Amino acid sequence: MASALSRKDFVSDQEVRWCPGCGDYAILAQVQKQMPEFGVPREKTVFISGIGCSSRFPYYMNTYGFHTIHGRAPAFATGLKVTRPDLDVWVVTGDGDGLSIGGNHLIHCLRRNVDLKILLFNNKIYGLTKGQYSPTSEVGKVTKSTPAGSVDFPFNPITVALGSHASFVCRTLDVEQKHLAEMLKRAHAHRGASFIEILQNCNIFNDGAFNELTDKPIKAEHQLVLEHGKPLIFGKNRDKGIRMNGMRPEVVQLGNGVSESDLVVHDETNLALAFMLGNFEPPLPTPIGVFYATSRPTFDAAMNQQLADAKAKQGPGDLDALLKRGDVWTVK
Fold this sequence. Notes:
Strand content: 15-25%
Radius of gyration: 22 Å
Mean pLDDT: 96
CATH superfamily of the domain at 7-209: Thiamin diphosphate (ThDP)-binding fold, Pyr/PP domains
Distance between the termini: 63 Å
Low-confidence stretches: none
Helix content: 25-40%
Shape: globular
Strand order of the largest sheet: 2-1-3-4-6-5-11-7
Structural class: alpha/beta
CATH topology of the domain at 7-209: Rossmann fold
Largest sheet: 8 strands, mixed
């Protein structure tokens, strides 16, 4: 049930300081728009970030928030969620913050299945520090830190999350507001680690990185919108699909003996299928939507249950008595 709050109630009094035209504005606007729909009071909502352009996010939300240190937002968020399981905790990070120095914290947060909503803004570049290549930049990327082209092989955020056994994994785009809203709703409704990769344009240092997915005349030919229980169909005229050729997926044209019954049907509970989709590269289309969703116990609930069981068995405990137990010394 929607609360009596509106979008304006989640807009802080801080001046938004991103570059004009940055994709972060669209993400912020949609998050603020959706928050009232979740029915969670502002005082029960927390946004936690690390370092980077995306990590300014908590300043712009009229909720509680932490602007923490580089890559450590998942660790701070885990501690908060375990000690205050009643809070609605969001993590906002970027491809640089979350997949470089923060990669270890991110994967362990996902594998533990902490009940967090993790928004990873992926613009394939370091924006705040002025345009160095990031863990998701393509091989050969020419930047200020790689004038001869990057020789690093990039991370794939979706398969990193799937490999960490995140219980909810999806991808969306900054400018696809309706789709972004739907992914935020799905992620919020999920209990466990919800991972949302948001492809976001940095118009200053990596403009046009996702043009084929956002330009209206061509995007339908490159986007594969995932819908649970429906065949993998795409194209401006919805006349292309994904069929298995042995163990390999291939693009086929519908008609001339090829029908929807020949296509792969999406099943967001199938981890193997999610991995296959996560590894799609041209000439295959880029999937957006929910890759994988499953239900399993959350770390925070299990930890609090252990504490409750221990208290029921041994009592609430006495820290002073614990510290003074055994050998003690008196310093005069």
